[in-house]
């Protein structure tokens, strides 16, 4: 087994935390499969101001000309009339939540599990009599009036000889006390509440053969699987590479969780004062227009699509979009507070990284998912901002 098969493949998947705020993500995420039906928004600016009707309900469909969404210019306007930014500098994080490397004990357990999964061998005993609690290998097939019954046959089935092992009540007890190699049959009635309606209450005849009893599972030592054909010079080389791989996976997972936690803390600690004038209503109108077009592709009305596919009401849309706009205000307030900037070079590299993670070129990625430059800039600014927040955390003991 070559080292790139064991280590490299798992490391090649790019972990990209895509953060699409409302002004960035004009198409709702759960309908991305139909993104090609979404119009391309015009993201020019609306005039700054305050919104007083924060509890407004999403307006009815406008049968007039197509509505063009206009994004508020967060970067070039003072956001202090709209939001009081929560704490972001020096946030405390418990040591157990921070990124730590595996201990020796954790690594040895992970290495054992790796060898167990990929190299262990379970003995197959081909003589003797089956006993309760054992695991056996068997073939079985169900018949009704001499005819095969669909979905009742398995070859080399692994059966644990105890109740609650995944089969209908009474099934596995018929395999206890059987001699390996024995062929036998039995009748069994399916429960009245069986998941397949056609089988409920039916009595089926099963023809069975016990092929083996599974014995001890033997896990080899690492030295026994690292040879000249493995692609590693020594077991020590493999252990170091595997440990690096596990630590990198752990780091990515922990950082992703921690980024989300830090972001949520900042949003919750931020006080919304007012919305930029028309920002929520504009996003409401755009959302209705988008979902209306998607609904038409399913030959449905907007209301039918909203209820059946989204399980939402117009009020839910308004609440969702209000949350999105607050998150926009938090993001851009945070960017300004920490003097975060996104250069053209960083933008181009960031978009390419997103596209690469989806296995597409940049143009195809942006077109297929309907993302605009504003979408991508918001996402990349979020990454820079949350990384800076992370750099300023204070780790405290649990």
Q: What does the model show?
A:
The structure is a single chain. The protein contains ten helices and ten strands. With 398 residues, it is an alpha+beta fold. It has two domains: 3-101 and 238-396, no CATH class; 121-218, Chitinase A, domain 3, CATH 3.10.50. The strands form three sheets. Strands 3, 4, 5, 6, 7 and 8 form a six-stranded antiparallel sheet that branches. It has a two-stranded antiparallel ribbon with strand order 1-9. A hairpin with a 2-residue loop joins strand 4 and strand 5. Helix 5 (279-297) crosses helix 6 (302-308) and helix 5 (279-297) packs across helix 7 (314-337). The longest helix has 35 residues, at 235-269. The radius of gyration is 30 Å and the shape is extended. The two termini are 42 Å apart. The relative contact order is 0.21. Residues 1-55 have low confidence and may be disordered.
- In whole angstroms, how far apart are the ends? 42 Å
Q: Helix fraction? A: 25-40%
When the domains are counted, the total is 2
What is the 3D shape?
Answer: extended
> Based on DSSP secondary structure assignment, what is the total number of beta strands?
10
Query: In what range is the share of β-strand residues?
Result: 5-15%
Structure classification: alpha+beta
- Which regions have little confidence, pLDDT < 50, spanning 5+ residues? 1-55
What is the rounded Rg? 30 Å
DSSP helix count?
Answer: 10
Q: Give the integer mean of the pLDDT values.
A: 82
Q: Encode the helix/strand succession as letters.
A: HEEHEEEEEEHHEHHHHHHE
Largest sheet: 6 strands, antiparallel
């Amino acid at each position: 087994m070559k080292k790139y098969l064991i280590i490299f493949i798992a490391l090649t998947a790019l972990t990209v935390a895509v953060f699409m705020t409302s002004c960035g993500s004009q198409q709702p995420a759960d309908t991305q499969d139909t993104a090609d039906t979404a119009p391309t928004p015009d993201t020019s600016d609306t005039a700054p101001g305050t919104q007083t009707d924060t509890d407004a309900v999403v307006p009815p469909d406008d049968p007039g000309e197509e509505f063009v969404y206009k994004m508020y210019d967060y970067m070039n306007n003072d956001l202090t009339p709209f939001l009081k930014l929560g704490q972001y500098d020096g946030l405390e994080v418990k040591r157990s939540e921070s990124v730590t490397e595996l201990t020796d004990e954790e690594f040895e357990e992970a290495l054992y599990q790796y060898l167990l999964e990929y190299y262990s061998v379970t003995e197959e005993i081909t003589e003797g009599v089956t006993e309760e609690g054992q695991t056996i290998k068997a073939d079985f097939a169900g018949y009704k009036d001499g005819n095969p019954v669909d979905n009742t046959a398995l070859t080399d089935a692994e059966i644990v000889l105890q109740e609650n092992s995944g089969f209908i009540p009474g099934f596995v007890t018929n395999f206890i006390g059987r001699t390996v190699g024995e062929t036998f049959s039995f009748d069994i009635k399916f429960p009245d509440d069986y998941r397949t309606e056609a089988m409920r209450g039916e009595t089926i005849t099963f023809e069975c053969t016990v092929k083996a009893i599974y014995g001890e599972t033997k896990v080899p030592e690492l030295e026994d699987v690292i040879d000249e054909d493995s692609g590693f010079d020594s077991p020590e080389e493999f252990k170091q590479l595997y440990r690096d791989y596990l630590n990198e996976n752990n780091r990515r997972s922990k950082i992703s969780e921690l980024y989300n936690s830090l972001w949520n803390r900042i949003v919750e600690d931020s006080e919304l004062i007012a919305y930029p004038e028309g920002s929520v209503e504009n996003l409401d109108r755009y959302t209705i227009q988008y979902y209306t077009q998607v609904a038409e592709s399913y030959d449905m009305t907007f209301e039918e699509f909203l209820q059946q596919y989204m399980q939402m009401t117009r009020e839910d849309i308004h609440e969702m979009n209000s949350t999105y706009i607050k998150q926009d205000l938090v993001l851009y307030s945070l960017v300004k507070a920490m003097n975060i900037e996104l250069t053209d070079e960083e933008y181009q590299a960031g978009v390419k990284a997103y596209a690469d993670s989806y296995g597409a070129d940049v143009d195809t990625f942006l077109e297929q998912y309907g993302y605009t430059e504003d979408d991508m800039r918001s996402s990349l600014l979020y990454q820079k901002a949350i990384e800076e927040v992370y750099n300023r955390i204070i780790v405290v003991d649990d």
